[in-house]
Write a structure and sequence with these properties.
mainly beta; 2 domains; seven-stranded mixed β-sheet; disordered N terminus; 3 helices; Immunoglobulin-like; four-stranded antiparallel β-sheet; 348 residues
Length: 348
């Protein structure tokens, strides 16, 4: 899935849950404590992007039982009474009520917005005489990842395109690549420059790319595995659903005359950038190094597994993509038990 941004006045990173509340003073005008208090006053109005599913959890404190209601909001020009319409199905909150005075953690969940237009909902939370309203606006991206012409804010073109890339990947020389390394099994790293986790060949156990040593199962003891065989078994593929470890032939397409590759940095991280000459689409592979017990060559070399085997009887018989500070070469010869990065391709 691609990076998700949230706007709380600022844009925050993807994958976080959302909740928004109207202003709630420490004391009412008569000096009494309000029946509902919100811990973070900055979360009163939020704008999220089309593929936002969850955001920051919100903490509220109530002095009694509370209830909630969600309504659709029209354009800002409409009056509040006209804006409140039928309950939308694309947004929910959990919990949606409380039976007693207590602290509550509320999460807002949304479905992907492929309607072709921005949409806004107002959440109303009531406790005794107090009422708090929450306004959530979800930007629009169509099913093919484009920003529609009737979007309320045309300044989101680059961000929305980035979201589409993270969801759908990027096609370079006919191969659809993920925009981020595989992190824990079944997940992508949060950012394109993140190293993710290392994997031994034909294994779905991830290993930390920094010290201290820890694997995705919580283990802290490094052990070599050297599985023989002629393929990376699907059951052991750590890629998220819809993706897989690439073949070496697919990796080689990054080094054809249709693609440029250049050593570069992304947010201070060294790596290699591959760009399709025809479309300008690109991906960045961080130089995460590799693990052989300890992590070596981090920031200098990149090692990325392929699923292709040239000798199924040898513990050294697997291809992988390698680059350093300015060169690339067809590589093999590492033991399959070394921990390398995985950059997945679409499984289609």
């Amino acid at each position: 899935m691609k990076k998700v941004f949230f706007s709380f006045g600022l844009l925050l990173t993807v994958g976080l849950a959302i909740t928004v509340f109207n202003s709630c003073k420490e004391k009412d005008d008569d000096g009494k404590t309000p029946a509902i208090q919100v811990k973070n006053q900055n979360d009163l109005t939020q704008t999220v992007y089309a593929d936002a599913g969850k955001g920051n959890d919100i903490l509220i404190t109530t002095t009694g039982a509370w209830s909630s209601e969600i309504k659709t909001q029209d354009t800002p020009a409409a009056s509040l009474l006209r804006q409140l319409r039928s309950t939308p199905t694309w947004i929910t909150i959990s919990p949606d009520h409380g039976d007693k005075a207590s602290d509550y953690t509320i999460t807002v969940s949304l479905t992907t917005n492929t309607t072709g237009a921005d949409r806004t909902a107002v959440i109303v939370i009531q406790c005794n005489e107090n009422e708090i309203t929450i306004t959530v606006t979800q930007k629009s991206v169509t099913a093919d990842g484009n920003v529609p012409g009737n979007s309320n804010n045309q300044n989101n073109q680059s961000d929305s395109t980035k979201i589409s890339d993270d969801i759908n990947g990027v096609v370079i020389n006919g191969v659809r690549w993920a925009t981020r390394n595989v992190d824990a099994p079944g997940t992508f790293a949060a950012k394109p420059e993140d190293a993710g986790m290392f994997y031994q060949w034909n294994s779905n156990v991830g290993w930390s790319t920094t010290e201290p040593l820890i694997n995705s199962n919580g283990g802290t003891d490094w052990y070599y595995i050297n599985p023989y065989g002629d393929s990376w078994e699907k059951a052991n593929d750590p890629s998220p659903a819809g993706w897989r470890v690439p073949t070496y032939e697919e990796q080689l397409k990054l080094y054809s005359d249709k693609v440029t590759c250049e050593n570069t940095t992304l947010k201070g991280i060294n790596g290699m950038k591959y760009t399709d000459k025809a479309t300008g689409a690109s991906i960045f592979l961080p130089a995460a190094g590799r693990r052989s017990g300890g992590v070596i060559f981090a920031g200098l070399h990149g090692y990325y597994w392929s699923s292709t085997v040239y000798d199924d009887t040898s513990e050294y018989g697997t291809h992988y993509l390698y680059f350093n500070n300015g060169s690339y070469s067809e590589m093999y010869g590492l033991k399959r038990g070394h921990g390398l990065s995985v950059r997945a391709v679409a499984d289609n």
